[in-house]
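In line with agreed milestones, the collection of sequences with tokenised folds has grown. One record among many is set out beneath this paragraph:
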Amino acid sequence: MNDWRDAVEAPPWEPGEPPACVEPIPEYPRQRVHFQLDGRLYRAAVMERREHADGRKAVHLMLWPTLSDGQRKAWFWWDPEVFEVRAPVTALSPVEGQLLDGDVVRVPRGKVPHDQIPKYESFQPGQQPQVQVRVGGHWHDGVVWHKIRYRDGRHAVQVKVTFLEGDGFRVVYWRTYWWNPDAIRVVP
């Protein structure tokens, strides 16, 4: 997500309102989101979700940094176009559940022997190539942050890729994939 739009604060639920379904979120792993408010970028952990009788959804967030008035927690109306959901690095998306023929292949995580340490080429913010990666038989949008060249001649790319999950929520994952032009295509 490159063009940030401000989030909208939601009032706390009042007992006189139509009933709302409140879902507390377990302490670990909490869903992480990034968003903008008054032109400032925030990181947050989702503490609770609230669904109103009229179908609107709100999220109770623990914020970093705090709001300008010093608040650390606040409610916001949920808008998938405003919030960027971040998955933990080790999390597996349901989209990645089954590797299909023609899908991109992830570089395994782990220690690299000292004599095999790759060379990284980083892209400056705003200059990262836009790509689509094939995962689960479908193409997904992403942005390349690093090109990686291994000493044995293989190449990989570190991609911030977005998968649509659940009810159409966009969830961002950081992945390192072996370069394959049939499974990673650069968007002009």
Q: What stands out?
A: The mean pLDDT is 85. The chain has two domains: 20-86, 94-186. The chain has no helices and twelve strands.
